[in-house]
Amino acid sequence: MTTQTISDGAEGPPVSSLTTIDQIVRRAEANLDPGPWDFGRAGAGEEVTVQRNRAAWRRLALVPSVLRDVSHIDMATTFLGIDLALPLMCAPVGALTVFHPDGAAATAIGAAQEGTVGVIGILSSPGFAEVQSRSGGRNLFQIYVSGDERWLDSLVERVSAANPAGLCVTVDSAVHARRDRLLEGSFDWRIDTGGDMPPNLEGLGRQRSFQRSFTWAALERLRSRTELPLVVKGIITPGDARRAVDLGVQAVYVSNHGGRGLDHG
Q1: pLDDT, tens only, 143-196
Q2: Domain assignment present for 63
């Protein structure tokens, strides 16, 4: 599975010379073809939720206490028993081969080099076992439930063999998102990445209808079927967070899918 997304003549200085987030964003836009660039930044609908997300972060303010000894700063922490050099992890992204030929492996390797981990998407490439092998094997595995109970049991068994740090079940994508930015263009990541079944789903298949029928009862069954730490991704209300904790999950992933799933959220 290969995708040519780098535009001719847009190489520029080495990535190591970039010092700000704005420089990285501008470099990405210059290096990517228009289709992959739009795919990466598209939100649902008119992207109202994306705008609200950005506005919400900008409303947050830092209130530092002064005259503290800050000559040594240690941001190390732990997550699900994993030692992290900083309190950041890489979120799951499915079609990373649109942006880099090594896909999820490149993300996981980069995360490991910085002392953190990745949440590897079920739709990503290469397969999870290869990502674990190439990056040191501390990553979590993200799941879209795309089959019945037997399907889910088979997937968990397959993934467990690669020794994940935990499972991350996405619960906020019951239906396929409408993204106006992509409807106006002609880019389809499924076609542009070869249209093949993602490696993690080979032999299992994928039916989106099961994402619509996955319920709390089904999540409880999954909790009872594996001893791996379980993360629920896509929680946005206190009530759902409490319900997930009461059900026995180890972590609640507060997320509205980056504004890519539901507009006006």
Answers
A1: 999 999 999 999 999 999 999 999 999 999 888 888 998 888 877 766 555 567
A2: no
pLDDT at residue 232, rounded to an integer:
98
Q: Output the DSSP codes for the chain.
A: -----BPTT---S-GGG--SHHHHHHHHHHHB-HHHHHHHH--SBTSHHHHHHHHHHHH----PPPS---SS----EEETTEEESSS--BPP-TTGGGT-TTHHHHHHHHHHHTT--BEE-TT-SS-HHHHHHHHTS--EEEE---S-HHHHHHHHHHHHTT--S-EEEE-S-SSPPPBHHHHTS---HHHHTTSPPPGGGTTT---THHHHH--HHHHHHHHHH--S-EEEEEE-SHHHHHHHHHHT-SEEEE--GGGTS-TT-
| Residue 128 structural domain | 15-57+77-259
- Which active-site residues does the annotation give? 257
Domain assignment present for residue 151? The answer is: yes
Domain containing residue 210: CATH number: 3.20.20.70
Least-confidence region, from 13-27, 70-84, 103-117, 142-156: 13-27
Total of domains in the chain = 1
pLDDT, averaged across the chain: 91
